[in-house]
Specification:
Elements: H1 2-27, H2 34-37, E1 42-47, E2 51-58, E3 67-69, E4 72-78, E5 80-85, E6 91-96, E7 101-104, E8 108-114, E9 120-127, H3 143-146, E10 151-156, E11 160-167, E12 176-178, E13 181-187, E14 189-194, E15 200-205, E16 210-213, E17 217-223, E18 229-236
Length: 242
């Protein structure tokens, strides 16, 4: 009888643990991807294991659905006036200037409406990996140190460094290095890429081109086109290169 009771109590305990686990997993809020709930506003330009890059476009008076973001970096291509509503009902209005760059290390749930008269356009880079490395980064030849006339630091913190890169026609930078980075062509052009071993390649980078590099790269770049080329680089300090 005692043995039967022990087995019974053990089964009850196991069932309770399983039921608790199921209830906890079931109660977790679903992540609301902005490109899923508001595909007319959020266009995915690139999506991989490390990052998701989106172009966010609000027409005048347009609002999105409540959604979530991973830790994110953003650059305002075309600013305006927006109203932001938080899940607790808190509402704030803000003027977002063109060229403004920001970073949210925690991610966020909110809803946004363009309450201005002009289109708002924002480049958004989300870091999808939640657990990042705290290891010290390898010391690199920083582009903003060796070529400050080309590389302008817009934002830098413990998570990211955002660089605006501007090459006038015929202009080149000095040999430098990058860690893990995401890049976007604000105004593309014809570029020449020289590697440390002397290998030279030319490439046409169209407006709006986007990419991601997960390895340390050492190179020197030159604008061999006839127009000024502008790029935005987001270096991810806590993502270790392969």
């Amino acid at each position: 009888m005692k043995t039967t009771m022990k087995v019974y109590m053990k089964n009850i305990l196991i069932f309770s643990i399983i039921a608790f686990a199921i209830s906890c997993s079931g109660s977790k809020e679903k992540f609301l991807h902005p490109e899923v709930v508001s595909p007319d506003i959020y266009e995915v330009l690139l999506d991989n294991e490390d990052v998701k890059v989106m172009m966010v476009t609000f027409e005048a008076g347009q609002g999105d659905e409540t959604h979530d973001h991973n830790p994110m970096t953003f650059h305002v291509i075309k600013g305006g006036k927006a109203r932001v509503t938080m899940p607790d009902g808190t509402v704030s209005e803000r003027e977002i200037p063109s060229g403004f760059t920001g970073h949210n290390p925690q991610g966020q749930r909110h809803q946004v409406t363009n309450i201005g008269d002009e289109q708002i356009k924002i480049l958004l880079i989300e870091r999808k990996i939640s657990e990042t490395s705290a290891e010290a980064q390898q010391k690199l030849i920083l582009p903003e140190d060796v070529s400050p006339e080309v590389y302008k630091v817009l934002l830098e913190n413990d998570d990211v460094k955002v660089l605006e890169v501007t090459f006038a026609p015929g202009q080149s930078d000095q040999m430098h290095e990058h860690g893990v980075l995401t890049y976007y062509g604000i105004k593309g052009g014809k570029l020449q890429n020289t590697l440390p071993d002397g290998t030279v390649r030319e490439m046409e980078a169209p407006d709006g081109f986007v990419g991601h590099g997960d390895k340390i790269v050492k190179h020197q770049m030159k604008n061999v086109g006839s127009d000024t080329a502008r790029f935005l680089l987001v270096e991810h300090k806590k993502l270790l290169p392969l």
